[in-house]
Amino acid sequence: MTYAAEIQRQRATIASLGAKWAAIDPDTAARMAVQNRFRTGLDIARYTAKIMREDMAAYDADPASYTQSLGCWHGFIGQQKMISIKKHFGTTKGRYLYLSGWMVAALRSEFGPLPDQSMHEKTSVPALIEELYTFLRQADARELGMLFRDLDAAKDAGDAVNTHRLLREIDEHQTHVVPIIADIDAGFGNAEATYLLARKMIEAGACALQIENQVSDEKQCGHQDGKVTVPHEDFLQKIRAIRYAFLELGVEDGIIVARTDSLGAGLTKQIAFSKEPGDLGDRYNAFLDCEEVAPSDIANGQVFISRQGKLLAPKRLPSNLYQFRAGTGEDRCVLDCITALENGADLLWIETEKPHIGQIGGMVNRIREVIPNAKLVYNNSPSFNWTLSFRQQVFDAWEAEGRDVSDYDRARLMSVDYDGTDLADEADERIRTFQKDAAREAGIFHHLITLPTYHTAALSTDNLAREYFGGAGMLGYVKGVQRKEIREGIACVKHQNMAGSDIGDDHKEAFAGEAALKAGGKDNTMNQFAA
Questions:
Q1: Which residues are annotated as a binding site for substrate?
Q2: What is the tens place of the pLDDT at every residue in 258-301?
Q3: Which CATH class is domain 46-116+177-269+328-450?
Q4: Where are the domains of the chain?
Q5: Which residues does the annotation say bind substrate (predicted)?
């Protein structure tokens, strides 16, 4: 609905109530409605699910149409990210937000900083989704509010051309609200617990939920040791639970991202249930590290499975966990992915130990032999040492080609001594094109960095503290922060405006008229930052 049509709708509504609503201005009511496009989180989930489905189809047609996101641990961080994207690129198309369970645990738990082991309050996850969308909706209201102020000025000046341009900008305004891929960990319990949490996350606005095949009560970060997976049927129960939550809430095209940690997980808590040879449970159990046992050698407390007429004892640890055979991780990943897609998942996530296109693409090609349009969400993780990994990849490639690598020590390639060398430059170029190359060669539809803003907050704070508390004093802030904000056009240099002061003034004027006590007058120090 256009702004003009919304004014007419509000005018009709107000007129129908007669004199008691005479003080209500239809134009102001229309502006408020336009500034608040999304009434509920479910409105957001339905809107963003459609966007994500369209983006998935675009990627299937052309892998150059991959999408990206950054993990955000606070609404303000997500808001500033989307404002920046609109400023630099003019559109939010193909850019999402990622909600990282790692950052919720480390930064948002009432227990204080926690490791990524599902120990944080599950309610903190939907709360962060709601917070992120609150800030994104406020970014819409702020931007539209400034357009309305410019529109009033153009009308007052009798500038018809500018008035027409601004009305078009208002009607064509692109929202800051974008899809969020949200981490539900391993579901925080059984399938019913997964369903209940998924429902809360969807109601808060999430259109895409990422769930992993680890045991809930043994869950570890994907880049830590000690990961324990569950049999496929246990995982599929949770995928079905999430789909039921989407359907119940009317988000029929909600997206489920099935993550497998099998590449780095050498343990399982359960022996899968199997009815007959070759079924899913039997295929899972086939990866167990077993020893054939003669009846005479049975020891107390042993557990056995039978296969092809043989009695096998799976290796069981003192933790009561069972061990997989070494070297089976990729095969288990491929089976996990095919099984998840065949049973309702939409996208895959394979957690790897390094960013290697050949490794990822090799697994995706095997999956695509069964499911041709299989595609990944991939974690461009800060847990990878990108510099060392890619320098070593280049070293290995050069060595395989027969090139002279005697000037380089493979174990020391992280050293600053190699900066600026041909090897380092080629490695940096591979890092620069990694997302484009992996989208084309390894089936990666969505590239994300799980916790970049955790690191940027730490780095920028360290830089400021070093300067401000050192010899630079106040110049450390002015030169390192404020001067850059002004010259680079960072919107929050006018922090009162960013926090909603001007929106509040507009409301005060609507509510109180000439009696409004507004904050944005001539004595507001933010006027020092006027363009």
A1: 100-102, 222-223, 259, 379-383, 450
A2: 999 999 888 998 999 998 999 999 999 999 999 888 877 787 77
A3: alpha beta
A4: 46-116+177-269+328-450, 470-518
A5: 100-102, 222-223, 259, 379-383, 450
